[in-house]
Input
Amino acid sequence: MSVEFLLRLIGMVCASLLGGYLGALWADLADTSPEIIVVTLALVGALAGLILTPYITTRPARYIRKRVSELPASVLVSGMIGLIVGLMIAGLLAYPLSLLPSPFGQILPFLGAVIFSWLGISIFMMRQRDIFSLFRGRVPGRIAAEGAGAQNDGRSVLLDTSVIIDGRIADIAKTGFISGTILIPRFVLNELQHIADSSDTLRRNRGRRGLEVLNELKEASVAPVRFTDMDAPNIREVDGKLIALAKQLNCAIITNDYNLNHVAQLQGVTVLNINELANAVKAIFLPGESLSVKIIQEGKEIGQGVGYLDDGTMVVVDDGRRYLNRTLTVVVTKIFQTTAGRMIFARPEASATSLEGVLDRASN
Output
């Protein structure tokens, strides 16, 4: 027998008794035969109790339990502390308020308890970041991870599917640049598994690579890596779930997905883009500086050669075609920044030296 069915029976009996009692009172006031009224109201009460009991017992309880399970531990702890502080203040003020003339002496202590409880919960939940920053290192790891604020060293971050498949996050985590907890939602892991089980070979390889990156991340990351079952069940898309969860936990999302990046920023969620980080840490060369590069292919223009630096920056070398498959020293002439990255234009050092000599002789 299920709990809901048992509660329905109890509600039916209680409502039936209440209906019969009300029917008897009605019959006395109306000065009529009580049997019909009592039986009718008892049956109506039994039917109402059988139908309405779940809506006032199990279903609200199930909804509250679901909402509580979705809340981060930091919110629950902050709310509980706020409630306790509010009740303590209300208790201190209850006696002075009870000395006021009637009816204020009876009403104000109760109102004070309600108002101060609400204020305590609201204030502590709004300032939870400051509270946990004060006690960081003295609270459990999960609470510290989920309650990390926007301007502290222990901020947690969420990973999306694209950045896991990309693989560079494992190398970044090894360096220790991510000091907070790395959170991987269960729905992201499920999406990776779904991709790994795909019939398409390319998608299957991408999914398997993502699972391998997760194993590497869990073993070699300096920052703690945790899987969380927290979800946004009312949202179907993984990107939408990530944004909702980031808002709920007040943390950032690490991604290299262009669309997720812009949608999250529009909704006020902090985004850490791997591609932007890669562009930011590339070596900076100024016009006139020298560098070594291997010419691996021809350029679009006549005589051009193209090479790449270790970080993937493209170097276009004028008159570099004749040095194909050779490493040479070039002099930077200009730098061009694009949305895809940085491009460097250069010419062979020997050509640059000859050109400078010609210009110097001409000026003399």
About this structure: Residues 290-363 form a domain with the OB fold (Dihydrolipoamide Acetyltransferase, E2P) fold (CATH 2.40.50). The first strand starts at residue 157 and ends at 159. The radius of gyration is 34 Å. The chain is about 60% helix and 15% strand.
